[in-house]
Design a protein that fits this description.
Structural class: alpha/beta
Number of strands: 24
Helix content: 25-40%
Mean pLDDT: 90
Distance between the termini: 38 Å
Shape: elongated
CATH superfamily of the largest domain: inorganic pyrophosphatase (n-terminal core)
CATH class of the largest domain: Alpha Beta
Number of domains: 4
CATH topology of the largest domain: inorganic pyrophosphatase (n-terminal core)
Strand order of the largest sheet: 3-2-1-16-17-18
Radius of gyration: 37 Å
Number of helices: 20
Length: 553
């Protein structure tokens, strides 16, 4: 799998992230950034809201929360956006066409203060040039003298080039001076040659502008009279025919641009959402805006094909159902995990490190040492917290001697007393008095699939039995009506000190699944939706494997 060094790589844990998921993402992103020496950017991410325990840990070790990533589907920002600069609406048709020709584009964005005002295409310019307009069009469009001078390669002999020709018609003065009086009106632009009499007649008829062709010299008398009458005088090297052909090209593109019902996309839009829209329209190019509605650039259907996928490193999971939304369309580069092998599939070979330990943070501690990178007090605190959380302070059956040794070394670096700190951390994590039943239920809820049967398991750990009882009273009425999209819902209320779990279960298959998975004694059944599982504290190693095993058999 090739790595695109120009784009960031996101290190992300599972949905409904726990302390291990968050802290491992932060620690691994930090390590990868150190090892890359600035050649690549790694960003720690999270696929869901953090629980109170994790918030306590991050605050304790003064660490910012990872960036929230709602999905990793390909977005417009992942496409090759053509940075065609916006042009002012005052630009002439001639200059716009020349710019399109030089850039090899068919569409120009018209902007003002980085805001998109409209679009003009080659087709619009061709239409403007080929259509037959009346001789008042130049003034109707509010054409600037600056545009006229630029188009005609002219020189302003008399007048201010910052002015606009916004009143009058364009008149080609080919007739005798005696006849000109009949069709020259006040404010007109008169195109003529070097005939003194014609120039004088136009000025006396209060023309707004004289365009003197062939670079003919303008006499001092005409200059003086023109200045007195407020008449602009332009000298151009072109002949009368060429001037007549070019004048309309000096009109501003704002007069011809499309400004209503523009189809624009935002850099955050998903490519799958814009694909259908682009397919239905015959436009070649589409403008892109940022979050502040400012113009960014242009894309075409060709850019859609070449959109680059997000780059991911997954930590603390390898189940597709637990991965951030859109992971199936992303480039997964690495997986660091300590769970059973799940259903996640990758588009190509990846670096996959999976070890039978109690916590992903334990694996990362090893990777830091293998990489000869010093573990700072902050990182040590995060990794130690993750191990204590996942192993329930070494009480979980998932805990190994490797986990305990790693936690003790990390605690020494972080300067914390394991037992006292763990109690503080668990107390913060189970303080759910202000949380709704929905928030508690989904705080640490994972879904699993075996064949055509799906089930979900949530868990709350606490050192306070009374607090677990209050949480139970909140959850039971909620779980009776919860719509989670699975066949059975289970929730573990784990008492860390007693090393036991009250298991709540709801769903048509739930009770049968529990009876098949566990040898529950009659005295351990509390009611029709609850039972006590003694010496059971681990979802990963005790509850999920038991349920999966019973379903498979």
């Amino acid at each position: 799998m090739s790595i695109d060094k120009k784009r960031p790589i996101y290190v992300v844990g599972h949905k409904n992230p726990d302390t291990d998921s968050i802290c491992s993402a932060i620690a691994y992103a930090n390590l990868k950034n150190i090892l890359s020496e600035g050649k690549q950017i790694y960003i720690a991410g999270r696929a869901g809201a953090m629980n109170p325990e994790t918030e306590f840990v991050l605050k304790k070790f003064q660490t910012d929360a990872p960036q929230y990533i709602a999905h990793v589907m390909t977005q417009v920002r992942d496409m090759e956006i053509r940075e065609t600069k916006g042009v002012p609406g005052s630009m002439s048709l001639k200059r716009a066409w020349e710019m399109m020709r030089d850039l090899g584009v068919v569409t120009l964005p018209i902007t003002e203060d980085d805001k998109l005002k409209g679009l003009i295409t080659i087709s619009d310019i061709a239409t403007a040039y080929m259509d037959v307009y009346d001789n008042k069009m130049l003034s109707t469009a509010g054409t600037s003298y600056k545009n006229i001078l630029d188009t005609l390669d002219g020189i302003m002999v008399i007048g201010d080039e910052e002015d606009f020709f916004d009143d009058g018609e364009v008149v080609i003065a080919t007739a005798n001076p005696d006849l000109l009086e009949d069709y020259i009106h006040e404010g007109d632009m008169v195109v003529l040659g070097n005939r003194y009499e014609s120039q004088l007649c136009a000025i006396e008829m209060n023309a707004g502008c004289l365009v003197v062709c062939m670079g003919s010299k303008v006499s001092l008398t005409i200059k003086k009279l023109a200045d007195e009458h407020g008449c602009h005088v332009i000298s151009t090297p072109y002949d009368t025919f060429t001037v007549a052909r070019l004048l309309n090209q000096s009109m501003p593109i704002s007069y011809f641009m499309k400004s209503h019902n523009l189809i624009t996309f935002n850099i955050k839009d998903r490519t799958e959402d814009i694909q259908g829209i682009m397919g239905k329209k015959r436009y070649r190019d589409f403008p892109i805006l940022d979050k502040d509605e400012k113009y960014v650039g242009m894309i075409s259907r060709r850019n859609l094909i070449n959109a680059k996928k997000k780059q991911l490193i997954l930590v603390d999971h390898n189940e597709e159902s637990q991965a951030v939304d859109g992971s199936e369309s992303a480039d997964i580069l690495e997986i660091i995990d300590h769970h059973r092998l799940g259903s996640l599939q990758t588009l190509g070979p990846v670096f996959f490190r999976n070890e039978p330990v109690g916590c992903t943070a334990t694996i990362l501690t090893r990777i830091y040492k293998e990489s000869n990178v010093e573990i700072t007090k902050q990182i040590a605190g995060l990794l130690c917290s993750a191990i204590l959380s996942d192993t329930l302070m070494f009480r979980s059956p998932t805990c190994t001697a490797v986990d305990r040794a790693a936690a003790e070394q990390l605690a020494e670096i972080a300067g914390i007393d394991i037992e006292e700190y763990a109690k503080e951390m668990f107390a913060a994590g189970s303080d759910l008095g202000n949380k709704t039943a929905d928030e508690i239920f989904h705080q640490d809820f994972k879904k699993f699939t075996v064949g055509d049967i799906s089930f979900g398991v949530g868990q709350i750990n606490s050192i306070n039995a009374e607090e677990l009882w209050e949480i139970r009273d909140k959850l039971i009425p909620y779980m009776e009506n919860a719509e989670t999209g699975v066949d059975a819902n289970f929730f573990m209320l784990t008492d860390i000190m007693k090393e036991s779990t009250e298991l709540l279960f709801f769903g048509k298959r739930a009770k049968q699944m529990i009876e098949d998975a566990f040898f529950v004694r009659a005295e351990d059944i509390k009611d029709e939706h609850s039972c006590i599982l003694r010496n059971v504290v681990s979802r990963k190693k005790q509850v999920v494997p038991a349920i999966v095993g019973s379903l498979q058999h």
